Amino acid sequence: LTDEEKSLADAAEAAMHNADGQIRQLRQIVQGHDQTALQQFVDKSLYPAIDPISSRIDALIDLQLRVAAENFAKSRQQAREFSILSLLLMFGGIVAGAVVATIIIRRLLAELGGEPRDVVALASRIAQGNLAERLHTEHASQGSIVTSMAHMQAELIRLVRHIDSITGKLT
Q1: Exposure of 131 by Cβ count < 10 A (0-12 exposed, 13-18 middle, 19+ buried)?
Q2: Which tens digits make up the pLDDT trace of 100-110?
């Protein structure tokens, strides 16, 4: 409870305590079955005893509605702020993901020494025995797959020439 709510609740409780005496008197009149005294009590004493309780409870309800409205407005503002924060974090995550993906792709391409489909086509040509087509390694980094395949191709060419020279000597 806020201080204002506590104050109104205490005032309502005090009004109820004051009305308790009037309620005891009402019980005595009802138990005595005195209709005239009951009518006089209702006309003169009951309303003044109960009305302060009603007004205190009404004030407490109004205060609680106002506090609830303020809390709702604060909650809406916080929801807006969290929505904006969430969108900013998602955008930051997307940007970070794109940066990391770009770095990974560049490193993979550097390790391959060229586009993956070019490396696969090159490996297929060598596997089929086509050693005539030279590999272009000017853009490939040292230790990449393309430079390794170029080295393998050069060694295969040297081996084939060596075998040809041995075969030529045998015939």
Answers
A1: middle
A2: 999 999 888 77
> Nearest to residue 140, comparing CAs of 108, 94, 98?
108
pLDDT band at 80 (very low <50, low <70, confident <90, very high): very high
Residue whose pair of structure tokens reads 């020439």 in the numeric block: 161
Fill in the DSSP letter of residue 114.
Answer: S
Nearest to 156 by CA among 132, 122, 124, 121: 132
- Amino acid identity of residue 150, one-letter, is A
Model-level pTM greater than 0.70? no
Which whole number is the average pLDDT over 79-91?
98
Q: How far apart, in whole angstroms, are the C-alpha atoms of residue 98 and residue 103?
A: 9
Query: What is the enclosing helix (H) or strand (E) of 16?
Result: helix 3-31
Q: Which residues lie closer than 8 Å to 90 by C-beta, 6 or more apart?
A: none
CA dihedral 15, 2, 61, 18 (to 10 degrees): 0
Could you give the count of Cα atoms lying within 13 Å of 23 in the half-sphere of its Cβ?
7
Q: Which two tokens stand for residue 15?
A: 């009004």
Report which of residues 74 and 140 the model is more confident about: 74
